[in-house]
Predict the structure.
Amino acid sequence: IVNGRLSIDCYLEGLKQTYSKLIRSNITIKSTDYIVLHHPYNKLVRKAVKTLCDMDDISDSDGVYEKKCSQSCMISRNVGNIYSGSVYLCLLSLCLNMSQSESSESIINKTCTMYSYGSGYMASMIQLRFLSEASDIIDIPMIDQTLESDSCDCSYDEYETAMRLRQNCFGRKDYKTCGKKPTKSDIYYLDHIENGVRYYIKT
């Protein structure tokens, strides 16, 4: 059972508490160059940015989101929530966007405030400073290729069928996969579950 309202409240309360502690080190949203937040879904990230802006008496939270946060949300908006790795995926997204920016602006010595949150009400906020250009930090061609190759189109009926299959198999201890198998090479997929043990096969 997931209590969505409580989960959102805990996320935002953790944000407030960790930011309040960060402010003591004279680090604020006004002074930071980029904001990278744990990204369950984009509406919550926008709400988190507004929360930070309210604490800093900034009225234009949409402007702050577009200028300091939106670039870090691009990949998560395409692939969805990856939970524990979410904030680092957003950092990767920021680096990717900065490396492909048409402007020649350097990110060296730019600061990035990061907020990480996990179930169980654990949260932390830190500030990073870039010591290298984004293109020196990440493998840009590999990321572009992965994002492009993992995308696919499907109809609503196909999506609904796939989701129903996942729902029917959730929590089962004995299960044999059915439906379409992966067509790409070098991919591990779940073949079956036996007595609670998962067995994977590589294509």
Remarks:
- The chain is about 45% helix and 15% strand.
